[in-house]
Hints:
The chain is α/β, with parallel strands linked by helices. It contains three helices and six strands, in the order E-E-H-E-H-E-H-E-E.
Amino acid sequence: MFSLVFTRRYSMAHRLIADAHSKCAIPHGHNEQVIARIQPVAPQRLDGDANMVAPFDRAKARWHRWIDDRVDHAFQLDERDPMIDWFRTHERERLSRLLVTPGDPTTEMLAACFMAKLNAFLAADGNDLHCVELTVEETPTNAVTLTGDPADALPLRRDGWWRRADDSINDLAA
Length: 174
């Protein structure tokens, strides 16, 4: 089966609060890369005319726009992080730049959230494509790859922005 593979770079900041002694408990940033492998929902034969699974521009446009406009330079925080309340009180206008995850925004969590979001985009766009593998490279030497269904990796407790085909990166009331 053919796969389409798209790569995008972005800058981010985050902090992890589950381990108070971790050096990642202090806000810091990375220049990351996300690599998405998408395939047709069902195997398909080349048509002898256009001979493509889907036009690249159509398959990746919404995903790349979301990475560039919403994820790039976002501050990634655990939904329980007290910094969210600080932003609500002192810099309310920046709430839309907080990428909020259920639990720490680890590379594993980002891979699951990003894959679910990409699949929501693909389903809404009617491309008959889905993401089968997504890799987040946190540094040139550290990466996480998720294959399969992101619902099997994400916490069960509720729906979130990652399951919606909109431009959201959090569920905070502005």
